[in-house]
Amino acid sequence: MTRFRGIAMLGLAGALALAACASSPTTTYTDAAGAEVTVDWKSYPAHAGMPAETALLMPAAGQVEERESQLIAEIGTTLADELGLPAPEPRGDGGWYPQSGNGYGGSSMLTTYNGPEWTIDAAIDPDDWPRVLGAVERVLRPHGLAPRDGIAFETSWQHGRDFGRDLEWMYVSVGDARLDEEALAEAERHGWLVSGVTLSYGVTTIDEADVPAFERAAAPFAGLDLPRDTHSD
After folding, report:
1. Class of CATH domain 52-210
2. Rounded to whole angstroms, how far apart are CA atoms 8 and 116?
3. Angle at 127 between CA 159 and CA 145, to 5 degrees
């Protein structure tokens, strides 16, 4: 058994070494002047699978927390008016997480914001859970955040839905852990919300100061098909 495990570990180490040494992809095309151009995706400023132009459409980093506050406030007002719920309160802190790699062996200029968890501590009748999610949807749609296909769930004690556009999202859940013994035990063990609404906002974007450099770096890749990632960063 030990011998086979050792062989397996050597195989894994070899695979990781090969992945680390993988070369970045290149694309060759003919420009408008008829010249042949080759670009190395190691220099791509966004990330594998993320069109650079999409990142430029997101709220710039300096606008993100103000946008989050606006969305949370509008949701809170709507839920108070329609269901008499208290205002959302933040739990924990939000944070910024710069992306180190671009998936092609180079560096990325993108940064991701994950906001705090906003909670409404209230006992809500399960019959009203669809009303909660519907009210949130009516707030978010005018801001460009629509329900994402296939990202929704319903259990006996919780309903959840993800709203978003491209690199921006708001996750919403409503439920009551007291309806499920295991869920209640987990909530009490970790100090999670037992009953009510949870809201989580996030976005991947660019610092304002980096926008000109990002646009210059992205220009050679405009209109090209993005290769699959070659690195795990």
Report:
1. alpha beta
2. 41
3. 45
- A 10 A CB-CB count for 162 gives 18
pLDDT digits (tens, 9 = 90+) for 169-188: 999 999 999 999 999 999 99
Q: What is the DSSP string of 7-70?
A: HHHHHHHHHHHHHHTPPPPEEEEE-TTS-EEEEEGGG-SSBTTB-HHHHHTSPPHHHHHHHHHH
- Residues of the chain short of pLDDT 50, as ranges, are 1-19
3-state secondary structure 179-219: HCHHHHHHHHHHCCCCEEEEEEEEEEECCHHHHHHHHHHHH
Q: Which residue's structure tokens are 């890749």? A: 221
Distances (CA, A) of 157 to 40, 95, 125, 149, 194: 50, 29, 11, 22, 10
Chain length of the chain: 233
In whole angstroms, give the CA distance from residue 57 to residue 44.
17
pLDDT confidence of residue 31: 84
Rounded Cα distance, 172 and 150, in Å? 14
CA separation for the pair 223, 94 (Å, rounded):
34
Taking the alpha carbons at both ends of the chain, their separation in whole angstroms is 33
What's the one-letter identity of residue 58? M
Q: How many CB atoms lie within 10 A of CB 231?
A: 17
- Joined tokens for residue 137: 């949807």
Classify residue 85 by its DSSP letter.
Answer: P
pLDDT at 58 (0 to 100): 97
Instruction: Determine which helix (DSSP H) or strand (DSSP E) holds 115, and give its type and residue range.
Output: strand 111-121
